[in-house]
UniProtKB/TrEMBL annotation:
<dbReference type="Pfam" id="PF01965">
    <property type="entry name" value="DJ-1_PfpI"/>
</dbReference>
<dbReference type="InterPro" id="IPR018062">
    <property type="entry name" value="HTH_AraC-typ_CS"/>
</dbReference>
<dbReference type="InterPro" id="IPR018060">
    <property type="entry name" value="HTH_AraC"/>
</dbReference>
<dbReference type="InterPro" id="IPR052158">
    <property type="entry name" value="INH-QAR"/>
</dbReference>
<dbReference type="InterPro" id="IPR009057">
    <property type="entry name" value="Homeodomain-like_sf"/>
</dbReference>
<dbReference type="InterPro" id="IPR002818">
    <property type="entry name" value="DJ-1/PfpI"/>
</dbReference>
<keyword id="KW-0238">DNA-binding</keyword>
<protein>
    <submittedName>
        <fullName>Helix-turn-helix domain-containing protein</fullName>
    </submittedName>
</protein>
<dbReference type="Pfam" id="PF12833">
    <property type="entry name" value="HTH_18"/>
</dbReference>
<keyword id="KW-0804">Transcription</keyword>
<feature type="domain" description="HTH araC/xylS-type">
    <location>
        <begin position="210"/>
        <end position="308"/>
    </location>
</feature>
<keyword id="KW-0805">Transcription regulation</keyword>
<dbReference type="InterPro" id="IPR029062">
    <property type="entry name" value="Class_I_gatase-like"/>
</dbReference>
Length: 313
């Protein structure tokens, strides 16, 4: 079991606190435990009219493998407590991963651990973050940034994307997809996807090509090109490519390739199918092709991936 700590500060945003607490909450399907803590135990006044009563202080960070810092209402006016800054540095030095949701990036930046690294935060505060911490490479365009031991995300909903991203890396595709279904969330959104769609892109019913993506996931074994996808969406290939990129952060064929690799990951985790059979099932043709894309996307081989994440092991 891996231990997760969620640090609640004065003015904490309810969604920012609740997302990691709910995603990683202990249950049979999740190899995690969660401690919600504050700088010290007791009552904490949050944002939006809510308060929190936490049982743990910063001692919870001493035993955590993954620490979340949720956003607060006024990060530009309320600096994080010095005790928290030191506790985060100490936890990071012993190997804990630190993750900020929304304006929690201000607390991480205060530690100096984001200096020289890319980071993001809610678009409304990105310029303030960049001005206050000039050593941080602030990117306001993306949903989340993974710098290995330090991760940041944009607004509250992107915290779900960040949590699912962490699950995919630490626990595998099957557990991450199960969590996504439990949350009724999209199982995969690129960290490079734009925080908000540019004005003028018509999306009156949410993501325009959701049905086409779902159709593609059911037909991965078949040849899929932009023409087929655009025909299913009933738009031109040019329009489809442009708007698909706006919605997902990927070109259509990049998305298809990632979907095939992700489906292969699930099959490696949950079945005893051979690599050749998996490659054919997901539309990558041959074991050689699967190994090449696995190496490009994940930096490992299908065999090594199976030995790491197989449920039987």
């Amino acid at each position: 079991m891996r231990r997760v700590a969620v640090v609640v500060l004065e003015g904490a945003k309810p969604l920012d606190v609740g997302i990691p607490a709910q995603v990683f909450t202990q249950r049979k399907s999740m190899p995690y435990t969660v401690d919600v803590c504050g700088v010290r135990p007791g009552l904490i006044a949050g944002g939006d009219g809510l308060s929190y009563h936490v049982e743990h202080g910063l001692d919870a960070l001493e035993r955590a493998d993954l620490i979340f810092v949720p956003g607060t209402r006024n990060p530009d006016r309320d600096p994080p407590p010095l005790e928290l800054t030191q506790a985060l540095r100490t936890a990071h030095a012993r190997g804990a991963r630190l993750a900020a949701i929304s304006t929690g990036a201000f607390a991480l930046a205060e530690t100096g651990l984001l200096d020289g690294k890319r980071a993001t935060t809610h678009w409304h505060y990105s310029r303030i973050l960049a001005e206050r911490y000039p050593e941080v490479q602030v990117d306001e365009r993306v949903l989340f940034v993974d710098e290995g031991s330090v991760l940041t995300s944009a607004g509250a909903a992107s915290g779900i994307d960040l949590c699912l991203h962490i699950l995919r890396k630490e626990a595998g595709m099957a557990i991450a997809n199960h969590a996504a279904r439990r949350l009724v969330a999209a199982p995969y959104r690129s960290g490079g996807q734009a925080q908000y769609l540019p004005q003028g892109v018509p999306a009156p019913h949410g993501e325009r090509f959701t049905q086409t993506r779902e159709w593609a996931l059911r037909h991965l074994a078949e040849p899929l090109g932009i023409a087929q996808l655009a025909a299913h969406a009933r738009v031109s290939s040019r329009t489809f490519s442009r708007r698909f990129l706006d919605e997902t952060g990927y070109s259509p064929m990049q998305w298809i390739m990632r979907a095939r690799v992700d489906r292969a990951r699930e099959l490696l985790e949950e079945t005893n199918l051979g690599v050749d059979e998996i490659a054919a099932t997901v539309g990558l043709g041959s074991a050689t092709n699967l190994r090449r894309h696995f190496r490009a996307v994940l930096g490992t081989t299908p065999t090594d991936y199976r030995s790491t994440f197989s449920r039987e092991r």
